[in-house]
Amino acid sequence: MRFVESLFSKTPNEFATQIVEKIARQFPPESEKLLAKKGAQRRLEGVIELVVKDLDDFQGRYQLNWLGKARFGNAFRWQLVDRGYSKEFVEALTEGVVRHLAPR
Amino acid sequence: MKTWRAKLFSNLASFFGKKDDDLPFEVIKAIQSKDLGLATCVVQGWASNNKSERNGEVVGKVAAQYGWLGVDLDKLIVFTHYYSDQVAIAYEGAKKYIGEGNKDLDIDMLTIAGYILYRTNNFIPAYQLIRRVGDAEAEVSERPDFLMLRSLVCWSYGDVERARVSTKRMVELSPQDQVILQNAFTIQVELGDEDEIDKIRGTLEGLGCRGYAYGLPLIALGEFELGYSCIDSRFHYTELERYINPALLPFPRWQGEDIAGKTLLVTAEQGLGDTIQMARFFPMLQQRLGGRLTVEAQREVVPLLQENFPDIEVVSRQLGQVPRVSFDLWMASMSLPFLLGIRPDTIPGKAGYLRSTPEVADYWQKRVSELAGIKRAKVGVAWSGQPNHRSDRRRSIPWEKFSSYLPQSDIIFFSLQTSVPGILPSYMVSVSEELITLADTAALIDQLDLVITVDTSVVHLAGALGKPTWLLLPYRYEWRWGLQGKNNNWYDSVTVFRQESHGDWDGLLKLVLKHNLIEYFGL
Question: In chain B, N or C terminus with fewer CB closer than 10 Å?
Answer without folding.
Answer: N
